């Protein structure tokens, strides 16, 4: 942390000329963030290889695919192994699948790959129809779908490698200069640094309301004021400017800043005062040149919620049938470890404040509740939770069940009865008193066996951070998001991260 005491305010550097570059192809090179060039080159080679490989497999499996080119095999090979891969690369590029703004972050990269696949399918269909070429529809369809799936897998794997480099080595990031008043800039700094794998690295703050607002305040990065922003970006080695909140009240200043950055190789992003709102809920609707940011209400009812409920109950019923042998083995282990009930049933607060009794395998000795009063002062968490990493009330088999999350499996019964969901905020004990303020919003959806809280750190998170993640899920949930959390849960459970 840096302590803001005094600064040398320099005069503004000469302004760069406004206006677009003379050629759209003559874009300025980015001064620092050059990771995307080798990364994109690797993606291009892998995408080309994926298309050629799938074509080879499809043709080898279905020889009739080449029947329309039997008279000219060389032409067929040229189309299958050169022109088709090059066409894929061109359409991926045209759809922005190599744009550095979408690499390694969010779902836009995958959507653009799917969009390119649809374009390829339409193009191949049109060319085959126009030239009256006899192609195997099954083979062509298999090749197109296989290529799309393989490219998506390649992108996913490459993203994992990129995110690992960002987390562990600090490589392949976007160095940001935050512009605005200090509270807004610090809020953006806090938000973008929560996830190091996103690759957003604030390196400086430029205050628009004068340096006096930051005197005596500790800041995580150096603070400047009264400087030419583009010169400051070059000085600190930045490649992105983030305008935070209401950075300026002067109309047209943001537009002039965008003009100044044209051709400089520096990206400009605007971080409005909308925190923890997912992209699908935000829509830009321009009115007479004014881009209005519309925020849609969360989807807490309708067909998507019905589909979620059906998916929950079907998966819970199937899971209970398949897990009967495991349940029996765990029950025997619990009884041998500590005589008493196999299950632990505790009142929890569920959807819209209704109380229900959650099913869990018992992991503590039968006198655990009586021993709680003597351990309160050893609580290692805050808020409404009580957690001790080495809780003496947990017997050895129970410790294994907790670490592996096997003690949570009986909650499939709660899911089957409609009291819980597979994904959602974790249900809190009913004896913790009334839920006040923002915490009550968790009750708008059914509690879940797993959730954003669990896949983001579990018991290692503070209470405030856990509540923030749960509220984010409530406001932005979707079926695709649920599937993503379920997938991430597998890795968290195997790693036993934050489980005690």
TrEMBL record:
InterPro entries: Bact_transf, EPS_sugar_tfrase
Region (Disordered): 1-22
Main localization of the protein described in the UniProt heading: membrane
EC numbers: 2.7.8.-
This protein's record includes keyword Transport: no
Chain segments annotated as transmembrane: 39-62, 74-93, 113-131, 137-158, 315-336
GO molecular function: transferase activity
Domain of life where this protein originates: Bacteria
Keywords associated with the record: Membrane, Transferase, Transmembrane, Transmembrane helix
Domain Bacterial sugar transferase: 308-494
Subcellular location field: Membrane
Record's bilayer topology term: Multi-pass membrane protein
Family that this chain belongs to: Belongs to the bacterial sugar transferase family.
Name of protein: Sugar transferase
């Amino acid at each position: 942390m840096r302590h803001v005491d005094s600064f040398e305010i320099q005069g503004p550097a000469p302004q760069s000329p406004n206006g677009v570059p003379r050629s759209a192809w003559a874009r300025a090179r980015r001064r620092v963030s050059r990771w995307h060039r080798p990364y994109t080159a690797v993606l291009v080679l892998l995408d080309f290889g994926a298309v050629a490989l799938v074509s080879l497999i499809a043709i080898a499996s279905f020889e009739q695919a080449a029947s329309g080119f039997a008279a000219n095999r060389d032409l067929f090979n040229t189309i299958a192994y050169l022109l088709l891969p090059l066409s894929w690369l061109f359409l991926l590029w045209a759809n922005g699948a190599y744009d550095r703004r979408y690499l390694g972050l969010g779902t836009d990269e995958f959507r653009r790959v799917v969009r390119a696949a649809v374009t390829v399918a339409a193009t191949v269909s049109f060319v085959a129809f126009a030239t009256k070429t006899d192609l195997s529809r099954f083979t062509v369809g298999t090749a197109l779908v296989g290529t799309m799936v393989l490219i998506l897998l390649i992108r996913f794997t490459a993203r994992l490698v990129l995110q690992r480099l960002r987390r562990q080595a600090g490589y392949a990031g976007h160095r940001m200069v935050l512009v605005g008043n200090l509270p807004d800039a610090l809020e953006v700094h806090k938000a973008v640094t929560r996830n190091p794998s996103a690759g957003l690295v604030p390196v400086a703050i430029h205050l628009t309301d004068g340096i006096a607002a930051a005197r005596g305040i500790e800041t995580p990065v150096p603070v400047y004021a009264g400087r030419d922003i583009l010169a400051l970006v070059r000085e600190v080695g930045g490649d992105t400017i983030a305008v935070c909140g209401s950075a300026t009240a002067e109309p047209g200043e943001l537009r002039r800043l965008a003009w100044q950055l044209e051709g400089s190789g520096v990206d400009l992003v605007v971080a409005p005062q909308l925190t923890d709102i997912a992209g699908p809920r935000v829509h830009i609707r321009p009115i007479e040149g004014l881009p209005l940011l519309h925020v849609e209400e969360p989807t807490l009812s309708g067909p998507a919620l019905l589909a979620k409920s059906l998916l929950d109950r079907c998966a819970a019923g199937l899971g209970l049938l398949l897990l009967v042998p495991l349940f029996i083995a765990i029950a025997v282990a619990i009884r041998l470890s500590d005589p008493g009930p196999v299950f632990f049933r505790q009142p929890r607060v569920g959807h819209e404040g209704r109380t229900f009794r959650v099913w869990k395998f018992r992991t503590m000795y039968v006198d655990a509740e009586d021993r709680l009063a003597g351990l309160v002062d050893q609580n290692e968490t805050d808020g409404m939770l009580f957690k001790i990493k080495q809780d003496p009330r947990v017997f050895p088999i129970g410790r294994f069940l907790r670490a592996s999350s096997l003690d949570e499996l009986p909650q499939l019964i709660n899911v089957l009865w409609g009291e819980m969901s597979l994904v959602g905020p974790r249900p809190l004990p009913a004896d913790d008193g009334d839920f006040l303020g923002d915490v009550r919003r968790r009750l708008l959806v059914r509690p879940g066996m797993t959730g954003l809280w669990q896949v983001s750190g579990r018991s290692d998170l503070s209470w405030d951070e856990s509540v923030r993640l749960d509220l984010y899920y409530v406001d932005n949930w979707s079926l695709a998001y649920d599937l993503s959390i379920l997938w991430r849960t597998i890795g968290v459970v195997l790693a036993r991260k934050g489980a005690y």
